[in-house]
């Protein structure tokens, strides 16, 4: 099942008094909503948000703070992030303080406000860092940093772009907000620019949604549809809830295609029937597959079986 691409800018109202779920596409779009629910499930969060780029997602999240708020920032972060902190938000009174996030004593001192150069004594409002930094690939311990930050009431914002939810869900380790440049590993094919954010609780969700809706850096429907394929690649683990899997079945992975009971769609990377790269399915594999329960019959085949082999296969198996 593939969700439609809704290109509508406005939606029908049954009456003047009605308050429909969808009214104006900047405030919400069904195609974008599908992607936002998808990334929220992958990151184990309560609410997801899709933006026109990774920097747009970062901008929206940083916009929830007010002038005078201090944010401790990992000293090794993406250049665009550094620019937002030091060249844009400083003009609006947001204070950023760089620190080595692998030096926990220095990190705690910065978050607590002890020894801050400008004499600030109040704890920082947030700490911002990347799970695996871009481009130097410094590894950060999300759980350790989150414990220190929460000790002083700071919000933990994590850029999980290079790790992806396939390898780590920072919200499970104590983070409050997770960010992605979906342009990179989540979309994975250099065919879309997109940013994503996921929050731990609804209170933060309302603040991020306000920034998304009022600043307007939303991801358009067509780009949302391209990005939603992220759940069709190897990012979906066995623990992923089934409602997420049923909405996105096509996989562009180079792994051999496994077909489940006529529900999945074969990978475009799988060789076509009769191609030199394909190998015929053996009769023994077909026979073994056909003895399983009809609801879970599994056939793995990228070849061209003979008529006799076909006759021994379960009717639920398909050749790709």
Structure characteristics:
disordered C terminus; 11 helices; 320 residues; alpha/beta; 30% helix
Average of pLDDT: 79
Extended strand count: 9
In quaternary terms, these chains amount to single chain
Structural class based on helices, strands and sheet pairing: alpha/beta
Percentage beta strand: 5-15%
Number of helices: 11
Strand order of the largest sheet: 1-7-6-5-4-2-3
Q: Round the Cα radius of gyration to an integer and report it.
A: 24 Å
- The span between the termini is 18 Å
Q: Could you name the ranges where pLDDT drops below 50 across 5 or more consecutive residues?
A: 234-303, 314-320
Largest sheet: 7 strands, mixed
Helical proportion, percent range:
25-40%
Give a description of the structure.
This protein is an alpha/beta fold. Helix content is 30%, strand content 12%. The protein is built from eleven helices and nine strands. It has helices at 30-42, 54-62, 79-88, 104-112, 142-151, 164-167, 202-215, 221-227, 242-246, 283-290, 307-312; strands at 47-51, 70-74, 95-99, 126-130, 155-159, 177-181, 195-199, 259-260, 298-299. The strands form two sheets. The protein has a seven-stranded mixed β-sheet with strand order 1-7-6-5-4-2-3, with helices on both faces. Strands 8-9 form a two-stranded antiparallel sheet. β5 (155-159), α6 (164-167) and β6 form a beta-alpha-beta unit. It is globular and about 60 Å long. The model is unreliable at 234-303 and 314-320 (pLDDT under 50).
Concise overview:
By secondary structure, this protein is α/β, with parallel strands linked by helices. The chain has helices at 30-42, 54-62, 79-88, 104-112, 142-151, 164-167, 202-215, 221-227, 242-246, 283-290, 307-312; strands at residues 47-51, 70-74, 95-99, 126-130, 155-159, 177-181, 195-199, 259-260, 298-299.
